[in-house]
Specification:
Layout (H helix, E strand, L loop, with lengths): L5 E2 H18 L3 E6 L1 H8 L4 E2 L2 E6 L1 H15 L6 E2 L14 E6 L2 E5 L2 H11 L2 H14 L5 H11 L7 H11 L20
Parallel strand pairs: 2-7, 4-5
Antiparallel strand pairs: 1-3, 2-4, 6-7
Helix pairs in contact: 1-3, 4-5, 4-6
Length: 191
């Protein structure tokens, strides 16, 4: 049996129930959404997502309440998860509010940060449409412009060859030869 997809309406319903459960506990939660759910909520770029990758607090209360919501709505207990935290930049910023309740604030990560995360992931099959939309939304037309955005969020992590090739394809640019400092040992220049 396949897991239900989370469309905008179902996400809003789940967030409402989550807020109600947090209110019963006397807790105010905050969720910072990244990934596919951000594309659904902030950009309406997809009809639905499988889950909500996010940073949230307070962790324990939000996770417990989210599991109760999952049981009530017949969702996977992992519909809201915080496993993307290792991919989020500490410079992400506040983002765009998409749900506001006295006991729960939900925002999506800023589009520049979302672009930087998706560029670093460089999953051609999963992220190409999202990247195309974000590049247009941010009016980014060159690889150099994209590299500048990514460097703001991940200054010590140069683009991988896979990221660069995906962007060159999306932007219609000719491949650049990587400088020797950008290549792993034994990795030949890309031409």
């Amino acid at each position: 049996m396949s897991e239900p997809l989370l469309d905008r309406d179902l996400l809003k319903r789940a967030f409402t129930l989550l807020a109600e459960r947090l209110a019963r506990r006397g807790v105010v939660g905050e969720i910072h959404v990244v990934g596919g759910a951000a594309m659904v909520l902030a950009f309406k770029a997809r009809a639905a997502t499988r889950d909500v990758d996010a940073l949230f607090e307070p962790d324990g209360h939000v996770l417990d309440a989210a599991r109760e919501v999952a049981d009530q709505l017949g969702l996977p207990r992992s519909w809201l998860k915080n496993q993307a935290s290792s991919y989020v930049s500490g410079r992400a910023g506040r983002g765009t509010p998409v749900f506001d309740h006295a006991n729960l604030r939900v925002m999506t990560t800023p589009p520049e940060h979302l672009l930087a995360m998706k560029v670093r992931a460089a999953r051609a099959a999963r992220d190409t449409d999202d990247l195309r939309l974000l590049l247009g939304h941010l009016s980014l037309r060159t690889l150099t412009q994209v590299e500048e955005v990514v460097a703001r969020y991940f200054p010590d992590e140069p683009l991988s060859n896979r990221s660069r090739m995906l962007l060159e394809d999306l932007l219609g640019e000719q491949p650049r030869t990587r400088r020797s400092a950008d290549r792993p040992p034994g990795d030949p220049p890309v031409s």
